Protein: SRCR domain-containing protein
Organism: Pygocentrus nattereri
Amino acid sequence: MWLLLLYLVPAVQAQNRIALRGPDSPCEGRLEVYNDGEWGLVCYHGWNSENGQDHKNGEVVCKSLGCGQHVESGHNKDSYKNHQLPTKYWMDEVKCSGTENNLWDCKKPRDTHCEADNYVTVKCSESVKLSLNMNGNMDECAGVVQFKTTQGHVSVCNNGWNKDKADMVCKELNCGKHHTIPQSGTFQRYGEQISYSVTLHCTGKETFSWQCVDWVQAKSSKCNQEASVICSNYKSMRLTGDDGDVCNGTLQQKNSTGNSNWVPVPYGNGSYIKAKADDICSKLNCGKSSSVTQRKGSEICLTCTDRVKVELEYSCYGNIYVRLNDTIHTVCSDGMTEEAQRRMGKVVCQQLNCGKLLTISQGYKVQNGLLRQVDCSGQEDTLWECLARYGPGPCQSTARVSCAAFTNVTLEDGLGKCSGRLQVKFEGLDWNVNATEWTKKNSDVVCEQLKCGKSHETQENLFVGSNHNQLEWNLNCSDGVSKLSQCTWTQRKDSRKKMNVNIICEKEKLWFLQGDSSCDGKVKVESAGKILPIQANEMPTDVCQWLHCGTVICSATTASHASCSRENATTQNTTDHVKCSGSVEVMLENKEKEKGWGKVKVCMNGMCRGVCNDTWTKKLSDMLCENQGSGKALSKEYRGSTEPGQTIGSVHCSQETRNLSHCYFALMSAQSACKTPVHVSCTGSVKVKLNDLRDKCAGRLELFYLGKWHPVCADGVSQETQNTFCSRLGCGKVVNFSKYGASKAEGLSGITCANNLSTCDFSKTKIQVCFTGHLNCSGWTRLFLTHPHSACVGKVYAQDHNGLLKVSGENWGPEKGYELCKYLNCGNLRNYSEKDENHNRTYNCGAQNDILDCSVNNKHAQFKHLSIKCDGNPVVNLLGNCTGEVRINQKERMCGVSQNTGRVLNELCHHLNCKHLITSWFPKSKGKAQYFSCTGHENRLWQCSSWTDNCDRVISVACANSVEFNFTGKCGGELQVRYRGNWEPLCLNSIEDAHMICRNQNCGKASSYKNLHSSEGVQTSFKCEKGETDPKSCVKYESCQEGKALIYCEKYVPVVKVVPPNTGLIVGLVVGLLFMLVAIAIMIWQRKRFLTILRLKSSGGEKDAELNNKEMQDLNKKNRDMHDRKSSVFEMDDYEDVDPIMNPMEDEPKSQKLQHAEDEDDEESRSGGSSRTQYDDVEESSDRQQEPENSSPAEPLLPPRPANLLDDVSYEVELEVLDDYDDATPAQAAVSESGESPGSEASEAADMLVGPDG
């Protein structure tokens, strides 16, 4: 379809076109016309000069071709054959009046009869010259397309301008083919005024561009932009100088086609160049010529009047500026594509020696724009070589670029200028460089740029970081690159900040002193990992200061260093032994002042400093731990408490260094950044303890590891490791190792020890969430009190793995009493006492400082048994009445994972007067709770060992007195029990148990009982001991297979099933009754309207009752009597306020009205009509009423009640709509005959009854 359109458009545009085919001008030659897709000739018949027809016809031809006036016409057979002659003649005997706009508008026969070569030739007066205007220059093979005529200059519109038309123009001007079509406005038309613009519509057969114009419509067409072209024969020119001024320097040129290079324009004799100098400066947008000189042999040095330099807003980034005669102008990006902006930016970055282009962007609106529509190929050396629209004016947005140029490249926070963290200055800011995808080749380029040789080492975390952001670009340097800016830049995909590039170049030197003291020894130097000999005059005179060792005290050769003193000190350059005034010490510091763990501190010249954790290595930790005599460094990260503060960025040691104090400590600079100081933990700092306030040699196993106490996981700890821990604590061997508590916590796993804690293997140790372990060693001992009524009063006992021991009061004093009360968590000591007793095993504590470090006496002897009374009184109760959560001091709860608590919980029930313990259970309750560990000898819960931790199973307790019984019926049915908060079934074992339950419920004896099988199972049994009378004591938390118990007592009352009422029926009846009440209320409210309707109904033609003429006369008479007595139905029923129905004849005299009514009645009687009236609340005795004196015939008359109607008080009224007009009521007929309408109220009522159709 599109191909068809492309074919048809030129044909449509060329239809009815004419042309003159000649070799020299588009206004002279053989006349041809275009028709039916083909060019043809015009026959000369009738085109003669005798009658002047040739002039008229010629005028139309010249006018329609824009060629001025007609000069002459002819039919020379031998002229204008330079083009191939068409074979067809499209016109013959043409007759124009001279006023036509086109030859096709002239008269001409349909058929042509013409011989060969008998064609018309025309010559017009116009002289047309095609040219390209380039800033006022017409012979440059580039510029704005225009025609020069005797009437003025005509420009070509950019509409439809394409390569084919551009080729035609270039060919016509002998400028080759088109090279490029610049954007409209790129070239300026200086010095010429345009009369009008035309659009070219070419068919492909034209010789001259002028022939592509449709001159009939040409001058009326609108044109906003002019066409321009650069032809292949165009020679570009430029001026190159050393100061960046593009309007001053050596004149060079190059061809537009091919890969031609810029070559100097030869000077020749100089006259031509001097004559064209102004044109060249104008062509270059450099004003006019200032001077032309010859230099370097035949080269031309041209200086124009304008001074033009291309600049950037900042060094290698920002808005693109053009400095014109010391005035700043901007380059606009209005309407430029992103690709065009990138090509322009590439040229600018290269021109200003700013490396490669990184990014382009649009700036802001300004008024001082100079260049627009910049079109660069990307191969230009300067921006001035690109095509652009030149001229001052506003910019909607400036053009901004960022070039790959570093104004400064340094290595920071290292040993010297040849090592450190890579830092570059880019766009006015300092940046770190991301180590991702960084290569050794890149490092080599950096070292070579800094004149530091090649790179020796490149790795992460060699040097401290900084506060600067990381560059958003990755660099990739190739061979032959000497500067970092020249490397390939690629946008980073991952914007997250990672490690910085750290480099040590080959020429960096590490100086150190080798000796027993940190600041006294042989001077040595290491470079690129090798120890180098010290050359003469190479050793720095400030080596002590460089090593932070103060100043040099003395220096000597190695042979004489032992006698180095002030007396024999030498300053010869051959000395290699130095003694400095200061000292350096590296230590581990912690608040506990313990060995082997803490913050690393380096004390130099009396000032201690922390070291940055980011650059610290495991190798440095091992060296420090070894120097401290604390084993090896733990490989994991330190987890203990930390102390802030660090001023040393990194530590650098020689390969020969064995003491950390002999290393070089690089101080942090103002721009350095480090968040945390380094802390180290050595294997020698590992300690073990059993965490339990009441037990000796038992408790939760914990290790001091990485500067912090950690519990040990219950799984994966070998027995050998457990024995190592017990042995280290002086607690014998392991008895058991079990899970501690019911909740998980962070613990240590993967610990392996063999006999000695210092030789434990922590290489596989890790910290994970686990169930922690409780270790019980053979040396376990616990002290406790036993008293039936108080937890903090009683005799003191000790428990170990061999049994119970009585604690001796020998050598006991108040201090130990206070310590014991505190140990028992019972407050302060009130008093203590001793009582003589005999026992085989006693526990003597008086001679030791710690009450648990007592000695066991296994000999039978008399001794004084210690009793103590503390002021503590913990309250333990249940949340409910003999049932519920265990609460200590009203707030704390008890965890259900406690040990050996059955005895104390049973005693708790008795203490609360709740009888014995039935059971305990674990509701869905979690949180902090007290864990209890009891020995089985305690009487009170508080006498057990306890601690607080997270608990997943908070315990609840049920005592016997909480039991309640219930039947599902009255004195019978399923037996239910409640003691754990909910009713649940239970099972019985005998009829005696059933008797006890019935008597307990005041229901007499049991008549029968049985157990029903339950799929859910029964968890509670009823079992009474012999002689038990209280059924509550018989409830046991024991599952049974018998099933649910059913009991029927003597007083059992069967349950009468009450059929539930039919709710739907009741609702229906209520709703129906409501509707009836509403209907009655509406009838009472609208009773007057109903009576009116009934009265109209009675006057209608309904045939419910048949009346003869005599009966009708009697009725009329009675009605008149009723009116006379004013005793109408309305008056009798208090309807005085109802308007009477107007009689249509009320304006007549009474006698006439009566007569008229009688006549109507007679007429109605004769016509066989009948009347039936239904009454509502009308007294039957109306026919016996007397006519009142003041009755009026105009009032409505109701007939008497027919005798054949029922005597009911109310009647059903049926209203019918009559479908046939023949059945109209007599009353309606009467109205029709009289021509009058009834009253308004009656009419409305009738309309309601009958409807609009009658």
Remarks:
- The longest strand covers residues 964-978.
- The chain has 19 helices and 72 strands.
